[in-house]
Amino acid sequence: MAISINDVAGFWKYRGEGNASIVLWNVNENIVLRFRKRSISDCNAEFEQPLPLPIRDDYVRDVMKPLLGEFLINEGEPVDIDNGDAQRVLENIQYTREERWKSQPILTDGLLGKLPDYCRIDGVSNCIAVEIKPKLGFLHSDSPLSEHSSQRICKHCLYQYSKIKSGKFMRRTYCPLDIFASSGKRTSKALKSLFDNPQNNLKVFENGELLFGMDKARFCDGVDLKRTVFKWLTNSRIRYTGNQGNRTTTGCYRFSKNEMERIFNDFIDIITEILRRPLSSSTVVDESQSNELDIDSILGRILSVQKLLPESPISMYNLYTNFIKEKRINSDLKWCEFVANHLPILRESVVDMESSTDDAWYRYMVGTTARDCSIILAIYKVGNRGTPCPANTRCIKHQDYHLHYTLGIVDLDPKSLTKIPLNYDKYRISISDYLSATTSSCDSGFHSAESSCPDSGLDESSDCLKYR
């Protein structure tokens, strides 16, 4: 479908980007455009050209949709925009891009992806959206740290040591095992950790505009976010006694810090409830009674697909190199050809993916896709419980709050097999950084590998050993 910038109504803003794409949103329509990008590691490598949009869309529609849920995913619509129009739009938003991405080439020729904007709700003008990239929510059975500690460390927490060593990131307490845990309290704890230090894993939007995220958090301590959430949930109106006798009037709310924190904790509890709520049921989850993550919740569905990942990065690398030696995988095969050739098998295997070695590559593709996907939930507060839900939204009551919300899963590009050696090298470096940091914990501020995590609240023997 060929369109021009004017055909899709007018004004585009920068939403965000990652290794695979950059996303712009339209202020007049609830749509986004997804421009593809080349690999930042090797812009000239033919293998690392982005997956053609039709193949990517087929993968999302035929493989990830059945696995995660038809109503959670929209593969989008391929559209063709004039190269000159695309260049002008990208020039206009260049100054708003994060500095670390500016050197990565954006492709303006070929098809773009046109998708619904999950950060907004149709017909709603006062909407808060939260985007969460939870990462891998379980531990592989094989652990390279087992000889150093009786406890194991998850891949995400392991990588934090290298990030801190680079000097680009501060220490954080977020662990994916918490957000996917059986206890709702641990999910809330994980969300609080993300709000304290979001890195690339959390963003908050107000009516489509970025309100809080990694770059925003660098310049504020979250007070602006908490103030916005406070006003949004309370409508920033209370009754107070003015200076005119006993007459009660409506005026400015001078709230305390403790009250602002209490309301923000309510906001986190609302997000927790939505993430853990069964998608096929209208029943509200009673977290005081829940001892398991419901497999039908959005977190439960993502975790079940993540668990299709066959091995840890080290074991996967060994399997990859053996298959190359045995010529069961052609190392010269282009990624787009590999995905296109295997889509028919993936379609057949999507209902029942077996754990045999021959299926390792299919499970690698879907498992890594679920590992790196993002959840977007958009929430709209209504005045009373009887207000009808807008189209395609869900309703929830939390304490005295009556809310409508939508859910979506994005960032569903299949991961290239050529990333396996790169991930292996990254994993080994992180292990070295971890051991270096924990053996010199007095100087580095880390707890040693043999110590337990203070105030961690961990309740499962297979949990991740994290620093605090």
Overview of the structural elements:
With 468 residues, the protein is of the alpha+beta class. It contains 14 helices and 14 strands. Strands 1-5-6-4-3-2 form a six-stranded mixed sheet. The chain has a six-stranded antiparallel sheet with strand order 9-8-7-12-14-13. A two-stranded antiparallel sheet has the order 10-11. Helix 1 packs parallel to helix 11, helix 3 (155-165) crosses helix 13 and helix 7 packs across helix 8. The chain starts with a strand and ends in a 24-residue tail after the last helix. Residues 42-47, 237-251 and 442-462 have low confidence and may be disordered.
Total strands: the figure is 14
Q: Given the helix and strand composition, which structural class is it?
A: alpha+beta
**Major sheet: size, sense and barrel closure?**
6 strands, mixed
CA-based shape: globular
Briefly, what is this?
The chain has 468 residues and is α+β, with helices and mostly antiparallel strands.
Features:
468 residues, alpha+beta, 6-stranded mixed sheet, 6-stranded antiparallel sheet
Per-chain topology:
Layout: E1 2-3, E2 12-17, E3 21-26, E4 31-36, H1 53-68, E5 77-81, H2 83-93, E6 111-116, E7 127-132, H3 155-165, H4 176-179, H5 184-196, E8 202-206, E9 209-212, H6 214-219, H7 223-234, E10 238-241, E11 248-251, H8 257-276, H9 298-306, H10 313-325, H11 335-349, H12 360-372, E12 374-382, E13 394-398, E14 401-410, H13 419-439, H14 441-444
Parallel strand pairs: 1-5
Antiparallel strand pairs: 2-3, 3-4, 4-6, 5-6, 7-8, 7-12, 8-9, 10-11, 12-14, 13-14
